[in-house]
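Figure 6 in text form: structure in, sequence out.
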């Protein structure tokens, strides 16, 4: 009898934990810090656009932002110092649901963990599956190239800022809209990191790659890139023809 009781209690506890993991928290408009969705995953900033609560039928584009090495640590507020979360912090009408995870000290981005986080957001909030976008700067730019190559059908568009990818795998991106940004005097991640990817994609027949090189600019290509409304207008123009909201179809 005790064995049955223990087993039933174990099943009840497992069900309770599963329910707690998948239960949608109340949506809060604006940008708020969030705990990891499970132990070992990333804490993150979540931005919910103004008007989300009023129109319960509307789906929103999802923008994932990956920060650089300088923001790593345990202070999730630091992800707001650059890029889309910085823009969202000052503009309640920023049109994207925006997820900005925090990378721990001395860590590098883990695509499996990022997949789990984005899958959770897609199931929890009203995400338009045809408009899921990825961007990142420096270390986050490297990871943006890497994640897009691993799952080219997951994203409607990718913007990699001051990053480098693997040109040998660039043919996987030939059908994906990509915009790369770099400063021509970058001595941290040399501009060839973006040039090589753009050349390789075009050599495969890709015609959806854009490259912006800022003259007389060092590593900080993110300020002009993310402050330009043209980037966000371009993102919103891109849509997946056959969207897959989770990572099950990454191949």
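Output sequence:
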């Amino acid at each position: 009898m005790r064995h049955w009781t223990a087993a039933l209690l174990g099943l009840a506890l497992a069900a309770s934990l599963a329910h707690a993991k998948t239960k949608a928290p109340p949506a809060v408009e604006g940008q708020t810090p969030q705990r990891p969705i499970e132990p070992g995953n990333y804490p993150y900033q979540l931005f919910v656009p103004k008007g989300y609560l009023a129109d319960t039928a509307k789906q929103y584009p999802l923008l994932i932002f990956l920060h650089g090495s300088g923001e790593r640590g345990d202070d999730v507020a630091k992800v707001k110092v650059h890029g889309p979360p910085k823009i969202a912090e000052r503009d309640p009408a920023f049109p994207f649901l925006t997820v900005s995870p925090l990378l721990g000290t001395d860590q590098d981005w883990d695509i499996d963990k990022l997949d789990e986080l984005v899958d959770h957001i897609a199931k929890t909030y009203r995400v338009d599956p045809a408009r899921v976008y990825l961007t990142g700067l420096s270390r986050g730019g490297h990871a943006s190239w890497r994640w897009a190559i691993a799952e080219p059908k997951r994203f409607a568009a990718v913007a990699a800022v001051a990053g480098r990818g693997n040109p040998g795998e660039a043919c996987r991106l030939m059908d994906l809209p990509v915009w790369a940004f770099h400063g021509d005097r970058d001595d941290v991640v040399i501009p060839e990191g973006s040039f090589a990817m753009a050349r390789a994609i075009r050599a495969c027949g890709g015609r959806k790659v854009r490259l912006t090189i800022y003259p007389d600019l060092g590593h900080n290509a993110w300020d002009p890139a993310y402050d330009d409304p043209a980037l966000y207008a371009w993102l919103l123009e891109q849509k997946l023809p056959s969207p897959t909201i989770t990572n099950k179809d990454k191949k």
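Caption detail: Residues 2-22 form the longest helix (21 residues).
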